[in-house]
From TrEMBL, chain A:
Taxonomic source organism: Capsella rubella
Designated name of the protein: C-CAP/cofactor C-like domain-containing protein
Gene Ontology BP terms: post-chaperonin tubulin folding pathway; tubulin complex assembly
Subunit structure: Supercomplex made of cofactors A to E. Cofactors A and D function by capturing and stabilizing tubulin in a quasi-native conformation. Cofactor E binds to the cofactor D-tubulin complex; interaction with cofactor C then causes the release of tubulin polypeptides that are committed to the native state.
InterPro entries given in the database record: C-CAP_CF_C-like (IPR017901), CAP/MinC_C (IPR016098), CARP_motif (IPR006599), TBCC (IPR027684), TBCC_N (IPR031925), TBCC_N_sf (IPR038397), Tubulin-bd_cofactor_C_dom (IPR012945)
Classification of source organism: Eukaryota, Viridiplantae, Streptophyta, Embryophyta, Tracheophyta
Gene3D superfamilies, alphabetized: 2.160.20.70, Tubulin Binding Cofactor C, N-terminal domain
Ranges for domain C-CAP/cofactor C-like: 160-323
Automatic annotation (TrEMBL), chain B:
Family stated for the protein in its record: Belongs to the small GTPase superfamily. Arf family.
GO molecular function term, any single one: GTP binding
Superkingdom assignment: Eukaryota
Keyword vocabulary terms for this entry: GTP-binding, Lipoprotein, Magnesium, Metal-binding, Myristate, Nucleotide-binding
SMART domains for this protein: ARF, SAR
Binding site for Mg(2+): 30, 47
Name of the protein this chain belongs to: ADP-ribosylation factor-like protein 2
Binding-site positions, GTP: 23-30, 69, 125-128
InterPro entries attached to this UniProt entry: Arl2, ARL2/3, P-loop_NTPase, Small_GTP-bd, Small_GTPase_ARF/SAR
Amino acid sequence: MEDDDPSFATETLDPALQKKHHDMLERLSARHQARKSDSPDTSSSSSTLESTSSFLAKFSDARRSIESRIAESRFVSSSSASSSTDPSKHKSDLADISVAINDLEKLLAENSYFLPSYEVRSSLKMVSDLKQSLESLSAELIPKKKFSFKSKSTNKKPEPKLPEIQKPDVVSPPNFLVPVRDSPGLRNKHGETLVKSFKGSSIGEFTLSDLDSCQVQLTGTVNALFLHRLKNCNVYTGPVIGSILIDDVEDCVLVLASHQIRIHCARKSDFYLRVRSRPIIEDSNGVRFAPYCLDYKGIEEDLKTAGLDEETNNWANVDDFRWLRAVQSPNWSVLPGEERVSSVSISSNADS
Amino acid sequence: MGLLSIIRKIKKKEKEMRILMVGLDNSGKTTIVLKINGEDTSVISPTLGFNIKTIVYQKYTLNIWDVGGQKTIRSYWRNYFEQTDGLVWVVDSSDLRRLDDCKMELDNLLKEERLAGSSLLILANKQDIQGALTPDEIGKVLNLESMDKSRHWKIVGCSAYTGEGLLEGFDWLVQDIASRIYMLD
């Protein structure tokens, strides 16, 4: 501890201590010298400059040097006949440039905490431009065949250190360890009339997804129904025993009956519902509601099976999760009587 | 006397457990709670906010917090994390499309420090529906095996519609919490 205090050391007469003290002073002055000589040009990799202008000066110096090296490599390759150029020379050049770009990026990262956000953004842009031009350079210099593999595996992978051995490590990992099967349903149709009867089938859940300009008629009962990404469709369904989950529909007319109905992300659509509980909407707008109006042979029986044989008037008790206030939500309304379709009759025995 | 032993003593007197039910919307949380309480499950509206049910189960009093799962209100789940003894994560096993969402939300929940000590029961609900994934399949999709080793967890298939599997799940949950908090009295 006493070594820290030089005045204390001089007063002691112990020669060993004095020697120690002397050594320490030397060490301190050496360190001071080192620091002084270090400060004007800090080493490029681990330094924070604490001043925007000095950072910008340093940054643009480094950038210019990289740019000139890229230009040089390009010039060398174009001036000499392509057959005579040495590929390994190119590779090492490219790798060097890539390292320089990485250093530049590191410098930016280390100093980003005090830089104005505009400078950070524009510097980032410059770094990515450099990477781009390095990539295009490597595309020119390295034989085409190998590059084509690279462009397939990653469209824009930074740090092309050794462009010829791009590892395909960016293959997205499989989401699921088990293959998730598709549930029964109607998917990816355009402009068709789709008819399905659940009578006598053992189907428990059914999905309508990615339909455009279709008319869908589902008769009989099912336990769960999922509607996903429907556009400009008319959907008429028999009663669902459990719940209906709707996500992303636009310009649709949906005639549905169920215990529960949840509507997410619906736009400009009309719902004719019979529900035992309160229907809900979330992230929707321009949706209108009216009572269920479907008819097919045997619907009375199906409604009874699903416990929906009586009108509950819940079709108008809509809860909007995006509008938790006492006043009426602007996202939905009751469909005026004169705009409602009259009863819709569909055939019950057709099956696709 | 340490704080932990004081808390244990208080809890012992009351024999109360706080259970938090969460999961995506449409997974059947409210239906499960009403079903184990022997109530009518035929008219249940999607939960806007939350419900609390106090149920006497074996010799314990369960305070079950059933919190709505709609996307808009999931961010409020964290308001209910404090002092949770048991966490019930409910999965709609027939909703194959949203299993990614389900996994993501569960993973987020398990990162929560305030829930670190709670027992986790995963209910693979809607097993009555033809085509639903089995509890094993759900367990694989949710990658439960990779969970933190210190977590007490179990996955049980159930149907809130028929009631099947619910008692098995809650029996395990209550026993597990009891053995942690009440030291198997």
